[in-house]
Write a structure and sequence with these properties.
This is DNA-3-methyladenine glycosylase 1. InterPro entries: Adenine_glyco, DNA-3mA_glycosylase, DNA_glycosylase. It holds the Pfam family Adenine_glyco. By secondary structure, the protein is mainly α. It has one domain: Endonuclease III, domain 1. Helix content is 63%, strand content 0%. α3 runs antiparallel to α8 and α3 runs antiparallel to α11.
Length: 178
Amino acid sequence: MSHYCDLAPGHPFHGPYHDHEYGFPVTDDRTLFERLVLEINQAGLSWLTVLKKREAFRAAFEGFDIDRIANYGEAERARLLADAGIIRNSLKVDAVIHNAGVVQALQGEHGSLHAWLDHHHPLPHADWVKLFKRTFRFTGPEIVGELLMSTGYLPGAHRDDCPVQARILAARPPWAQA
């Protein structure tokens, strides 16, 4: 079985994501929310499709501005569902809007989405999945696993012999501190 570390290097979309983002700790709520949005939209599709549409997602969701998205109404929902640059799936669009409101509530309660994640860390994957299913919409085991691996909360983003792994360990991701 091939690993992302085998497929990504040198690829115009996978390469930069693999080398500079995937597995590195993320503390910024907008970036955490962006990753959640991208993972939700990847469901049933290839990660390459999502990476190719990433800039369109960024534009459509106003730079992943959590407060703005949480206040989206029917006009914004219709705009998103008509936007050929993103994945026009009503369940995914509705989940993003709903989850922005959830993030606002978590920010109110914990100060930030990052603090909420830290509050629950460390958890085994299965417990993270239960927590996310209770908290967010459209978050199954694969979405939760990839989100948490990509943001440094779960190990496994890179092989131990991948040169990026040493840089990730130097950045002290939460999973390495547990």
